[in-house]
Amino acid sequence: MIISQSDDDDIQLETLPDNAEYDALYKLILLGDGAVGKTAIGTRFCKGLFKSGYKMTIGADFFIKSLRLDGKNMKYQIWDVAGQSRFKSLRNMYYRGASCGILVFDTTVYESFGNLENWVLEFQDETGRTPMIVVGNKVDLPDRMVAPDEAENFAKYINAPYIEVSAKSGRNINRLFASIYDLIKEHRQSIMIPKVKALPIDQAFDELEQILKTIDNQAAATVALKITRYSIFKEVPFSVTVQNMTQWIRYLENYGWNEQSRQAMLENIPAWKHNYKIINIEE
Ligand SMILES: Nc1nc2c(ncn2[C@@H]2O[C@H](COP(=O)(O)OP(=O)(O)OP(=O)(O)O)[C@@H](O)[C@H]2O)c(=O)[nH]1
Ligand SMILES: [Mg+2]
Predict the structure, then answer these.
(1) Per-residue pLDDT tens digits for 113-147
(2) Are residues 179 and 207 located together in one domain of the fold?
(3) CA 32 to ligand 1: nearest atom
(4) CA of 131 to the centre of ligand 2 (A)
(5) Of 146, 161, 185, which closes a domain?
């Protein structure tokens, strides 16, 4: 059976022809166990169709969809990787350069929800801190096995939003892809432009030194690093110092704050001061 008309509430999106000029191209990856509905979500969003028969994906496939969002032309390249475990070794190469991971489970199959953690690890191994969204699919079916609260908690735990959809009815499918755009935008701003103001560079380094000497927590160290990094970024965006500080911020976010990192960073300050004008041409 093929359903082409969405029969449920969803937002409207302005679509563009596939060959339209675009301002930004985003690579999205559909992840999750076999048969959770990854291909069905891609097909519903990109072709406006739903097919009820299951034909497992072999290797990987992709969809293209061009949209007008936020006053810009966006092109989504949506990779649909095979969920069956026999394709595991093929998947990693598709993850590279991803803008967002879409973690799909089937709300009627508990195991597909339990396995999401493995998908997160597999994806993060290749992509680092790329944003993710958790998607509970098949909410049109009555025999639900995963409570919304439980899914919501898992999503919070990996710092991702949660949305419930049905590829069959079309429920929330446009909403899902619109919120992915917001997620990518937010993530970029958090990397490039933290919500801090830039200081003159000398002053930024002085303050960083003072703060690193006295604070005792990761959050304060991260903010101090971000202020300094942003102050340099405004003048020399691709300097070695900006890159090195970014690595430190990631390190602190992953491993927390300790006495060794305080010492190491204090010892780094002269090199940061010295290197901030040097541009790394590999970038
Ligand atoms: N009722 C219902 N069935 C769905 C929905 N989404 C997908 N299905 C069905 O679930 C089965 C599997 O869907 P697929 O999209 O092929 O699953 P997949 O995640 O791509 O699976 P792999 O390619 O093996 O990784 C198909 O029979 C679909 O018709 C949904 O929202 N509601
Ligand atoms: Mg598939």
Answers:
(1) 999 999 998 998 888 778 999 999 999 999 999 99
(2) no
(3) 19
(4) 22
(5) 185
